[in-house]
Write a structure and sequence with these properties.
Helices cover 71% and strands 0% of the residues. With 336 residues, the protein is mainly α. The termini are far apart.
């Protein structure tokens, strides 16, 4: 056998080298290449990848309703009873774990559907091919488990066993946002979900575990932080509007169009401050929450005038911090 024959014989049996942590799916390999040469060339995960997957900029949406609800619940507690810091911490764990869990669940669901292959923002864990989708799913379920355990602890402490049903519904809603065969996040209902669960339920629930009742302050505050959560989601979906159209993801931004989405974002951002004006009649220090407009107004201006999707990333960050300032500020104003 000559050298040429040896080469031709060896060629068919040669095996491609395996890369650690990379997907063998050609579609995911292409998605990794789209994400940039640096990402495409990498072969292993780093802690920064997992931190990015948790989407830390969304965590203020979990903190704000718990802070506001705890402040509202504190004024409903009898004068001879102190507020319950342990319940506050557990409620915060529930909210944060749910938020992180839904972020990883979205990464998994959008990644296996191919939705994230067209996205503008940072590359996701699943779509980039850096990690097995089942691992991302497992992490999402782990955070849902943490939320369930903290919620169970709150149930035992308060002896309000119906809270288990509320927690179960919240976890199911978090999963079916982008998971399942017919995710409601793909049907323009994402804003409704965040308004209900990261607005009303989280705020009223945090107030209830403090005072075992939900006062008007908690309901009004829940409406305010719920609208701000809707604004954050709208900014995110306006950024990805063209990519979501290509992927068949019919978010509210896709359904109403760019102009309608900008109008809704502005309304979501500014209407909560009307609630501040009402509560300031009874809690004078609540007027300090109007300083959060220093974040909200620039965010509105950016969204109204943005020419490119990347400009909306700053609006998303500003609206998220507006929610945090709103929730903590109004909670303190009510409680103190």
């Amino acid at each position: 056998m000559n050298q040429a024959d040896a080469k031709s014989t060896a060629k068919p049996i040669a095996k491609p080298a395996k890369t650690n942590g990379r997907s063998g799916n050609p579609a995911r390999a292409a998605a990794a290449a789209k994400a940039g040469p640096a990402l495409a060339a990498r072969t292993r995960l780093t802690p920064r990848d997992w931190i990015a997957g948790a989407r830390l900029r969304t965590l203020p949406l979990a903190i704000a309703p718990v802070a506001l609800g705890t402040g509202a619940g504190a004024v409903a507690i009898p004068d001879d009873v102190a507020w319950h810091p342990t319940r506050f911490v557990l409620a915060l764990v529930v909210a944060l774990a749910l938020q992180i869990g839904v972020n990883y669940a979205n990464d998994y669901s959008d990644g296996i559907r191919g939705t994230d292959d067209h996205r503008v923002g940072p590359a996701r864990l699943t779509a980039s091919g850096l990690v097995n989708p089942k691992v991302v799913l497992g992490v999402a379920l782990a955070f849902f488990g943490v939320a369930a355990l903290a919620g169970l602890a709150l149930t035992v402490i308060t002896q309000q066993w119906w809270l288990i049903a509320v927690g179960a519904v919240a976890i199911v809603a978090a999963w079916f946002y982008t998971g399942g065969k017919r995710p409601y996040g793909y049907a323009g209902l994402g804003e409704l979900f965040v308004f209900i669960f990261f607005g009303l339920v989280a705020t009223a629930g945090s107030a209830f575990v403090q005072a075992l009742t939900v006062n008007l302050e908690a309901w009004l505050g829940g409406v305010g932080v719920g609208l701000l959560a809707c604004a954050v989601l709208m900014a995110n979906n306006l950024r990805d509007i063209e990519q979501d159209r290509l992927a068949g993801k019919r978010t509210l931004a896709v359904l109403v169009g760019p102009i309608g989405g900008r109008i809704l974002f502005t309304a979501f951002m500014l209407l909560p401050f009307a609630i501040v004006g009402v509560l300031a009649l009874f809690y004078p220090t609540a007027v300090l929450v109007f300083f959060a407009l220093l974040l909200a107004l620039p965010a509105c201006l950016i969204v109204i005038t943005a020419k490119t999707p990347r400009e909306l990333i700053l609006a998303l960050q500003l609206s998220s911090f507006t929610a945090l300032a709103y929730g903590i500020g109004l909670g303190l104003a009510i409680a103190l």
